[in-house]
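sanity check this chain:
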Amino acid sequence: MLLYIKYMISLRCKLLVKEELLRMGLHYISIDLGVVEILEKLSDEQYEKLKVNLQKSGLELLDDKKSILIDKIKNVIIEMIHYSEDIPKVNYSDYISEKLHYDYTYLSNIFSEVKGMTIQQFIIIHKIEKVKELLLYGELNLTEISYRLHYSSVAHLSNQFKKVTGLSPSFYKQLKQKRNNLETLESESETV
């Protein structure tokens, strides 16, 4: 039996789900981001118990078909941007369509209808979050980040970053460095 779980986006979430399944005496075949396959067919009582227990951990068991599909779309995008070593070089629409085995127009219409934003807007938001993360690590410069996330140019990345955050990438990095310096000074003065 397949179970779809909303907000299951990290290893910690997978561990929480695994522990809950074991606590309930259920046997899993696989646990992936947003999807769990278990051996047993859940009774209504078990389903409700699992649903309530997962909610205590901030996770949500999905049962509505549209919600499940939206969650699958989000998980494919999050996995593609945040957890893949290299973002696919094909069009995002082709990649998502291929991964979920649905026509992209259908996926796009449902996503927009339910989320109030396009899949493209969702992708941009997550790409900018990834840019922020990479800027803070400081291992890559803006050109390398632009190349890694398949932006057509550094200018394109910078424009998109400014549109989403209101700041230029370099100003964002400077602000974070200043904030970190202030926090370091505050913690040092507290220990004196």
In short: The chain has nine helices and four strands. The two ends are 58 Å apart (CA to CA).
